[in-house]
Amino acid sequence: MTKPPGSLGVLEDVAAQLAGIAGSCPAPLPAPATVAVFAGDHGVHAQGVTPWPQEVTAQMVANFLAGGAVVNAFAAELGAVVAVVDVGVAGRLEPAPFPAPELIDRRIRPGTADLAVGPAMTVDEARRAVEVGIEVATTLAPGSGCLVTGDMGICNTTPAAALVCAFTGATPQEATGRGTGIDDPTLARKIEVVARAVGRIPSRPATPEAALAVLAEVGGLEHAALAGFVLGAAATRTPVLLDGVIAGSAALVAAALCPTALEYALAGHAGAEPGHALALQALGLRPLLGLDLRLGEGTGALLALPLVAGAARALRDVATFDSAGVTEKGR
Ligand SMILES: Cc1cc2ncn([C@H]3O[C@H](COP(=O)(O)O)[C@@H](O)[C@H]3O)c2cc1C
Ligand SMILES: O=C(O)c1cccnc1
Question: Where is the active site (predicted)?
Answer without folding.
Answer: 297
